[in-house]
Design brief:
heterodimer, A: alpha+beta, Phosphorylase Kinase, domain 1, Transferase(Phosphotransferase), domain 1, 6-stranded antiparallel sheet, elongated, B: 9 helices, about 75% helix
């Protein structure tokens, strides 16, 4: 018998005895072998301390997920159903009721569900008219008008189901930070385009205000709630007029004088309201103000609008003054006329900013240059008519053609020279002296370019020194890398990877933000240096597609999954939607690797999305 | 697939060692998938019991009409070994993550990543089990089948071709031995 067998035998025989008998038995069995006795006693003691040791299978002892992740996941709200919609989270709340994110259970699509307070829907014929108008506006199928799916009724309330827009309201955007002038103009033009289409169909909005305008991350502007104002005006409720005048509901800040007086309104009331919005967009202040609602009403009816800050172009003041004429007949006759003026101004502003950016090296008076450019630039940048109808926002529809820079730089050089010579530079812009116009000049995009510089810190083996890479190297399996980035802009950063996993499948993983990286927040401030935790290449064969996304606004599709991505995004539909979105934006993104500095500079539109193929083996 | 795996099992029991090698990755993938499913948050239905993982894999992978109980025993033996690999590997990776400050492996999914705080003692247990195997391979096998494979005493007896009573004795002794080893 081997020692091992001996130990077992004594152990099992001891086990069969009561504790009292055990001591005697051990003494006898191990009489001449104190080591054996010690060993068996230790084993018995081990057994006694934890008789259930290993009884539960190993896999059960692995908690399914760590506490820190668990706390990030909010308990889902109890599901509530309205008609065939599963009501989700509350998106917003206002005088017009609550808006929820909902899922249409029959179609499986997302929707925004606005539940109207009962007081607005007491008169069936009004509800009917509202429904007709809302649907008519929606039926125009205009890219800047929110699509209405249906107006429905449950036992106690009416609801409006619309397309769900992932984005922020113009109110939120104004509150966040200053809008560049071109962006402000672009937003105004898109609102005007929606109104123009509606007016042509005989629909007046009557309640244009920043709360009713949504901005999508990709630059599209959507006007909400066509037809709704009639419902609310008709059901005007003294409760909401606070203590002041007993007048109409809500804030009257965007109300036209004729509306404030309760007179009949036409499409020109929308022109007024858009003028107020535009004023607020460019100056972050409203043209009319008052300590009380009564004072505000007086200002709207009697006073001149507040002047714009002096750094803004005079032409903008002219436009706003015209939209805010007290008498409707003194305003723009149609919203189309307003659109044309806004576009002309935008072209000038863009050209001026192009000059401003090009000028500093030339040692010229940039101010003079800009004014000169504003005075008469249109001859140099011929009208581009592709935008005239504005089927889509220009920041999306019109790519930035490289030749646009061509006419500018030679002219700058010429200007600089003339300026040095003390000549008036105005003449250079005259068509006869200007260089031949380029074959296809175009307007620069309105939305500000997104910019990001990134690099990788790679460690090939745990003991080797990390090096910096622009991402073009080969990485052996097991290499670790960290992603680094910086940008002069603030925004929302997302890092994803699409790569091979077991069974020849591909998974989409969210690598930033995570609980460990930026505390699950995508928000990054200007010049904030970003460095992620280590990523390690796995051993699966295939291509790692690393996605870098740098957006002006949060991307709701990704926000929706960030808490549950671990880091693989579990839901195939959501993954597919995200990839589709990324691929769309990738088309408008350009990247330039600086091999010497091992940096990659990327620029793109409202949503910059770059895909980098990382090679490993 | 079930046919392919069943055939490999049959070949293996006929003494074809290469068949076992080909079988390994197939079973491994399936078990990993099941383990991950079990460990993931989405097991709200609780249909997947931890003890049932190797059974589940067996039902999915093997065409039962064409294999014998010996093949089944072989499969369970193999599956238990693989489960041990998967779980210990999982614990190792988690430990590495703890040291490395949030390392993620690309393209692996959830269970592998946010470490799930696995019982780090699993790694020590794995080492102790290797020790045990040097003294008594059978004891180590019993632990592997019972603890990692989640098999019953009966199934373990079938797999190892030993009596029910022997499995019980070995299981008791091995647990005491491991406990003592780990406490030292």
């Amino acid at each position: 018998m081997t020692r091992w067998q001996k130990i077992q035998e004594v152990f099992h025989e001891s086990m069969e005895r009561s504790p009292q008998e055990r001591a005697i038995f051990l003494q006898q069995a191990c009489a001449d072998d104190p080591t054996l006795r010690q060993e068996v006693e230790d084993l018995l003691a081990a057994h006694e301390t934890d008789p259930a040791f290993l009884n539960a299978p190993a896999i059960q002892q692995i908690p399914s997920f760590p506490d820190e992740i668990a706390t990030q996941i909010q308990a889902p709200p109890p599901t509530r159903r309205i008609s065939h919609y599963e009501v989700g989270t509350l998106l917003g709340k206002g005088g017009m009721g609550e808006v929820y994110l909902a899922t249409d259970a029959s179609l499986g699509r997302k929707a925004a569900l606005k539940i109207l307070p009962a007081r607005y829907t007491t008169q069936p014929e009004l509800v009917h008219r509202f429904e007709r108008e809302a649907k008519a506006a929606s039926a125009l199928n205009h890219p800047n008008i929110l699509t209405v799916y249906e107006v429905g009724k449950t036992e106690d309330s009416h609801f409006i189901a619309t397309e769900f827009i992932a984005g922020e309201t113009l109110r939120q955007r104004i509150a966040r930070d200053n809008l560049p002038l071109t962006e402000a103009l672009d937003i105004a033009i898109q609102i005007a385009a929606a109104l123009s289409a509606a007016h042509e169909a005989g629909i007046i909005h009557r309640d244009i205000k920043p709360e009713n305008i949504m901005l999508r991350p990709d630059g599209y502007v959507k006007v909400l709630d066509f037809g709704l104002a009639k419902l609310t005006e008709a059901a005007s409720n003294p409760d909401e007029s606070t203590t002041q005048t007993g007048l109409i509901m809500g804030t009257p800040s965007y109300m036209s004088p004729e509306q404030a007086r309760g007179q009949k309104v036409d499409h020109r009331t929308d022109i007024w309201s858009l003028g107020v919005v535009l004023h607020e967009l460019v100056s972050r202040a409203r043209p009319f103000s008052g300590d009380t609602q009564a004072d505000l009403m007086v200002a709207i009816l009697e006073r001149q609008p507040a002047a714009l800050p002096s750094h803004l172009p005079e032409q903008l003041q002219t436009i706003i003054t015209r939209t805010l004429a007290k008498e409707p007949q003194q305003r723009y006759a149609s919203i189309q006329d307003l659109i044309e003026d806004l576009k002309a101004l935008r072209r000038k502003v863009e050209f001026a900013s192009e000059l401003k950016h090009a000028a500093p090296l030339e040692n010229t008076d940039a101010q003079t240059l800009r004014q000169t450019a504003e005075a008469d630039t249109l001859r140099l940048t011929p009208e581009v008519h592709t935008q005239a109808e504005l089927p889509a926002p220009p920041s999306i529809a019109i790519p930035v053609p490289a030749p646009a820079k061509f006419p500018v730089r030679p002219v700058i050089a010429g200007l600089a020279l003339l300026s040095v010579l003390g000549l008036s530079s105005w003449y250079i812009f005259k068509p006869q002296t200007a260089p031949a116009p380029p074959p296809a000049p175009a307007v620069v995009t309105a939305a500000p370019k997104r910019e990001l510089t990134w690099w990788l810190t790679v460690q090939r083996k745990s003991e080797s020194a990390p090096f910096q890479s622009a991402g073009r190297d080969w990485f052996p399996n097991g290499s670790k890398y960290k992603f680094n980035s910086t940008s002069p802009q603030s925004g929302y950063l997302y890092l994803l990877n699409e790569g091979p996993t077991e069974g020849g499948k591909t998974s989409l993983n969210l690598l930033f933000p995570t609980p460990a990286n930026n505390n699950l927040s995508a928000a990054v401030t200007a010049n904030q240096p970003i460095q992620t935790g280590n990523y390690v290449f796995n051993n699966y064969q295939g291509e790692e597609r690393f996605w870098i996304v740098w957006a002006i606004n949060p991307i709701p599709e990704i926000e929706a999954v960030k808490a549950t991505a671990r880091p693989t995004i579990q839901d195939a539909t959501q993954s597919a939607a995200i990839l589709r979105l990324l691929n769309e934006h990738a088309v408008q993104t350009t990247a330039q690797a600086d091999e010497a500095k091992e940096l990659t500079k990327v620029s793109g539109e409202a949503v910059l999305a770059q895909m980098v193929k990382l090679k490993h083996r | 697939m079930p046919n392919e795996i069943s055939q490999l099992l049959l070949n293996w029991s006929d003494g074809d060692v290469a068949a076992r090698e080909r079988l390994l990755p197939l079973v491994y993938d399936e078990l990993r998938k099941l383990a991950r499913k079990y460990l993931s948050r989405e097991r709200a239905d609780h249909t997947l019991q931890p003890t049932a993982l190797v059974h589940e894999a067996y039902l999915r992978l093997v065409d039962q009409q064409h294999v014998s109980w010996q093949n089944r025993a072989q499969f369970f033996g193999l599956a238990a070994t693989l489960m041990r690999n998967i779980l210990v590997d999982h614990a190792r990776r988690h430990r590495a993550e703890k040291r490395g400050g949030g390392e993620y492996e690309l393209s692996l999914s959830e269970a592998d990543r946010y470490g799930e705080q696995p019982n780090i003692k699993l790694i020590a247990l794995d080492e102790a089990l290797n020790h045990l195997a040097r003294s008594s391979p059978q004891h180590a096998q019993v632990v592997e089948l019972r603890y990692f494979g989640g098999l019953t005493i009966e199934e373990t007896a079938n797999v190892l071709g030993i009596s029910h009573a022997t499995v019980e004795r070995d299981w008791t002794f091995a647990r005491a031995w491991l406990k003592k080893e780990l406490c030292q």
